[in-house]
Amino acid sequence: MTALMAVAAYLPGDRVPIEEPARRLGLSEMQIKIFRRYHRLGEVARDPRGGLLDLLRGAVALLEPLRGQEHRVRYVLHARTFPTAVPYPLDPVSELCEEFGLGHAAVFAVGHHACASGLLAVDAAGRLLAADGDTDGLALVLAGEKAFTGEAQLVPETSFFGEGASACLVAASGDRDRLLSYATDLRGEFDTDAHEAALEFQRVYAEALADAIRAAVARAGLTMDEVGLILPHNVNRVAWHQVCRTLGYPRERVLLDNVASTGHVFCADSFINYRTARSRGLLRRGEPYVMAAAGAGRGATFSAMALVH
User: Fold this and answer.
1) Domain 178-308 is classified in which CATH homologous superfamily?
2) How many CA atoms lie within 13 A of 57 on its CB side?
3) Residue 123 CB-density burial (10 A; 0-12 exposed, 13-18 middle, 19+ buried)
4) Which pTM value belongs to this model?
């Protein structure tokens, strides 16, 4: 059974208030007030001096269990929100692998589910390792991107992207942080720029994400009452409060503390929140928890996975 052997997260020290990217992108003062007062967004993480390699390096450098186990890593997956993360011909992930002794591994990107691609990458990594039949093999799942274009800085009417990265060492089996189930709902009808589709996406968002969470929990043979914590993607508090109302789940058991101070860190949010939960003792041995995320781009994706710590 797929297990998270270790998770590391890196956030740069710099923060900028949301007003800075908002005004640069031409948002009105009223739009900015809605983001700050209604969505409860405050600032976003930024690394003005570094590139994507620096962000990913920061996360992998903190992944202590990788030391001495580099030879066991068969796959390196970069979970991405956007199809293009750096200008051609840059290849920071391959550079990172050479730097950390992972040049022998198969390296590829996973971006089919937009901001939910981090969960897809963990599931794919576990499936690859299981198919190999090599109980000693490991996979490294990376997430994190640079907010280097206008589209990569703003989720319209929803959130601002922040910079950071996560690194997750995945094994085919393990005693802790075992993957119990994974559920994803792909909605191709949202693969359009029509304004009506955007309105419909907002209308169905809470119910669709709640359905994905319910599906993952049910497939794991659990009830929502047994789920100790939800590690969300960091879009905004209002969206998650709506999901909680739909689920009938206590909002205080959704870790939303990073939303206002980091922004939506692409596919890395759930793993960044995992590290916060670990540092605060919020994950208890033997207790189930859920990672959940939604993605928009080439359609919409609503995903969740149930794990046990």
Assistant:
1) Thiolase/Chalcone synthase (3.40.47.10)
2) 14
3) buried
4) 0.96
